[in-house]
Amino acid sequence: MKSRLLPVLLLPLLLAACVDMTGLSAESVRPPKGNPNAVVVVTEFADLQCPACKTAHATITAPLLAKYGNVIRFEYKHFPLRMLHPHAMVAAMGAECAADQGKFWEFVEKAFASQAQMSKDRIKTWAGELMLDTELFNRCLSSEIKEDTILADYEEGKNKGVGGTPTFFVNGQPVETDLAKISAAVEEAVAGAMQRL
Questions:
Q1: Burial of 58 (0-12, 13-18, 19+ CB in 10 A)
Q2: Has residue 7 got a pLDDT over 80?
């Protein structure tokens, strides 16, 4: 029995090893939103297949950036809840592969807008809709070269006490997932930064 199972277990590893890695990088190049040099940093740990994250993206992230975009650096961190959301990891990898082509945030918008149709095949379709080099994107996705980057975000979140998504931090301090509470924390952090100048 074990001897028959071994080839089945090794097949995905062998297929991944056959992917042409030319032009691929394991590093993340996802840019922050807002002011990249801001002293106030808002960090969100999120899952692209999470319905609550989709809601927060529209009701918290967008208004927050509209109001404070010039004074905050907004960072997105991956926290795929794989037991609940079967496409969360591949979506996160898709976002990182899109980032390599300068379209991280466009991919995030597409993922949230089309969340109900999310699948590996749909994620590949989104690459074409975003005018990405689909051959490069598909190789990046198939290689799973971004997995360690995503898992590093996940581990960082766990170490900070993240238990679900979305979870927000302002300058490293956890804040309730509420626009008013996050805004108040941003105002306080901005005021503190001004006093130190």
A1: exposed
A2: no
